[in-house]
Structure to design on (280 residues):
C-alpha cells in the first residue's frame, strides 16, 4: 500500500445503473467512475464457480502467468513476456484452491470469444460504449494477493468484477512525468519504474507530487478506466471464494486522447511497433 503522506487520496464516484446519456458525463471528459447495478442480469455472477467452470472449460489448455513475489510485470527486453506455464484449466483452478504456495498464478487478459466461447453467453456487453468501437472482451482469473503494477492502457476500459474484490489506485494522464514510465523506445513504455508501495524518493523525487484516486470494486460492479489513466491493481483475499474473476470490455478511444502525455508517447512508438510487426 502507498505510504506517502504527500500524496493526496481522492475517492471515485459511484453511480447506480446510469443511462448512456448520464455516462457521457464521465466518458467525454475521461473521468473514472464506478457503475453499480449494471451487471444484475449476468449469469456469470451466479454460475462462475469452480465446478461450473471446470465442467465447461476444464480440459482447455491455457497459458498461466507465474510470479514468485505476487507482482505480474513486463520485461524491458521482452516486453509482455513473463514466466508462463501451459496447463489444463482444471489444473490451474486446483492450484488456486490450494493453500498459498511460494508461487502466484494468474490467467491474464485472455479473449473470451477466442479462448472460452462456452463462457461467452454468461456475460453481456455494457451499453455504455459504441459497439463498433469494441474489441473482444477479455477475462482475468486468479486469487487474492496478485498485483498488476502501475501501468496504463491505450484503450478505454469497463473493468467488470465477477467474483471477489479488487483495489485500484489510479493517476490521471497529466501526471505521467511524476510516475517515471520506462523509456518510450523500450518494450514496456506503458509501465512505471516505481514500486509505488515502497517508492524510492531519491531515485524518483517527483513522485510525491502525484495525486491518486483509490477504490475497491466488489462483485457486480464496473469501474470505468479511461484511456491512458495509470492504474495499479490488487486482487484482494476472499475467504468464502478463492476465485477472483474480472472481465475487461475494451473500446477504441477518440484521436483527441492521443494528445495527452502518454498518448504522445504511444504515437512516438508506433514506427517501432510497425517495424517489428512487419519484420522490416
Amino acid at each position: 500500500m502507498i505510504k506517502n503522506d504527500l500524496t493526496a487520496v481522492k475517492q471515485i464516484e459511484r453511480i447506480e445503473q446510469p443511462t448512456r446519456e448520464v455516462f457521457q458525463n464521465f466518458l467525454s471528459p475521461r473521468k473514472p467512475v464506478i457503475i453499480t447495478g449494471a451487471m444484475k442480469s449476468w449469469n456469470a455472477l451466479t454460475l462462475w464457480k469452480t465446478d461450473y467452470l471446470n465442467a465447461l472449460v476444464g480440459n482447455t489448455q491455457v497459458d498461466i502467468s507465474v510470479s514468485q513475489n505476487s507482482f505480474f510485470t513486463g520485461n524491458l527486453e521482452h516486453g509482455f513476456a513473463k514466466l508462463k506455464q501451459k496447463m489444463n484449466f482444471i489444473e490451474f483452478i486446483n492450484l488456486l484452491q490450494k493453500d498459498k504456495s511460494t508461487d502466484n498464478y494468474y490467467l491474464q487478459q485472455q479473449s473470451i470469444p477466442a479462448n472460452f466461447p462456452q463462457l461467452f453467453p454468461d456475460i453481456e456487453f455494457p451499453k455504455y460504449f459504441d459497439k463498433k468501437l469494441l474489441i473482444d472482451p477479455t477475462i482475468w482469473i486468479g486469487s487474492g494477493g496478485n498485483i498488476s503494477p502501475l501501468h496504463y492502457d491505450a484503450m478505454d476500459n469497463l473493468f467488470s468484477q465477477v467474483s471477489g474484490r479488487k483495489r485500484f489506485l489510479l493517476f490521471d494522464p497529466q501526471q505521467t512525468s511524476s510516475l517515471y514510465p520506462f523509456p518510450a523506445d523500450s518494450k514496456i513504455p506503458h509501465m512505471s519504474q516505481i514500486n509505488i508501495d515502497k517508492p524510492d524518493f531519491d531515485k524518483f523525487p517527483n513522485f510525491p507530487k502525484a495525486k491518486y484516486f483509490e477504490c475497491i470494486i466488489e462483485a457486480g460492479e464496473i469501474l470505468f478506466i479511461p484511456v491512458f489513466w495509470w492504474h495499479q491493481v490488487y486482487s484482494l483475499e476472499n475467504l468464502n471464494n478463492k476465485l477472483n474473476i474480472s472481465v475487461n470490455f475494451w473500446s477504441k478511444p477518440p484521436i483527441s486522447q492521443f494528445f495527452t502525455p502518454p498518448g504522445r508517447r504511444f504515437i512516438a512508438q508506433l514506427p517501432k511497433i510497425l517495424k517489428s510487426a512487419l519484420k522490416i
The longest strand covers residues 104-111.
